[in-house]
Amino acid sequence: MMKKLSRIVFAIALLLLLTSCKNTKQKLQEYVTTYNSQAGNFKEENVKLTTARGYINDDKIELRFETDLEQNEVNKETSNVVFPKLLMKMIKNDQISKELITEGVRFDVYFLANDNTVLAKKIINKEELNALLK
User: Fold this and answer.
1) Is the pTM of this model over 0.70?
2) What keywords appear on the UniProt entry (predicted)?
3) Is residue 1 included in any domain, yes or no?
4) Can you give the pLDDT at residue 7?
5) Where are the beta strands (DSSP E) in the chain?
């Protein structure tokens, strides 16, 4: 009787485990929803707004950081130094999901000037993640 009961409990536990597993597309959607819901709490110098947009069919997430910086060469050069540091901090704090990247999701990340032109852009995929973590 005990053996049969433990088999039933094991079967139920296995069924629950399998149904609770999410595929990459579901994780991508969940990440974007969570990121955008917490974007109001994001505090970083010169960043006034951040948003995420998911592209399920392309396995891609676009992160945008809107700043109060003007589009000029000085700010562009500064962004090329500051922006990678911000991304590293976000990866270490799991604000950019290493799990999704290792599952093949690409992050296209934009650091935008106050007129929405691109100051800096970074594409984070498996190879870039490994390079950033070195």
Assistant:
1) yes
2) Signal
3) no
4) 62
5) 47-55, 60-67, 106-112, 118-124
